[in-house]
Amino acid sequence: MKRSIGAKTLLYPHPVLIVCTYDTEGTPNAMNAAWGGICSSNPPSVAVSVQKSRKTYENLTAKQAFTICIPSAKYVAEADYFGIESGKNTDKIAAAGLTAAKATQVDAPYIEEFPVVLECRLTQTVEIGVHTQFVGEIVDVRVDESVLGEDGNPAMEKVMPFLYDSACRTYHGVGPEIAKAFSAGRALKK
């Protein structure tokens, strides 16, 4: 039997996404945004939700570009810091001891130490309650060669991304492969 626990933000779990932007003076900023994910295959697009009070909101609106960085588990403290410190008074990337690099396709920074970067051009905004959802077309994906698998794609066990549990407010690692997608269910087809 299932018990109601009320209306909550329990899409379970959330990816840890680091949204990087420049302000109008070219200062890089990074924000931990668990409210996000892929929202279109064609054009390839990602959406992140940001509150209007955030520096990232101001930067996204001004620059119309951003990157999404996927941090490895060894950077959990830095990723968490990007969600608890304001970029309004602090250069968070420098304070975390990380390196801001300029994206090649959009006017936004990325974090050099994080292995996967999606370079995005803002295409839409949608007002939803206390958040604005920013939709960006992914114009390039940059991946550290050290985390590429034999097939040329990022290898999960090398990237070592981590997830956010909004119910318990904890981070969790990603475990081993449990099945092949678009294959495991074939045995159930009639």
UniProtKB/TrEMBL annotation:
Organism: Methanofollis formosanus
Protein family according to the UniProt entry: Belongs to the flavoredoxin family.
Annotated ranges, domain Flavin reductase like: 9-153
Annotated protein name in UniProt: Flavin reductase family protein
Cofactor(s) demanded: FMN
Pfam families: Flavin_Reduct
One Gene Ontology term of the molecular function aspect: FMN binding
InterPro entries with a match to the protein in the record: Flavin_Rdtase-like_dom, Flavoredoxin, Split_barrel_FMN-bd
Keywords carried by this UniProt record: Flavoprotein
Gene3D superfamilies listed in its UniProt record: Electron Transport, Fmn-binding Protein, Chain A
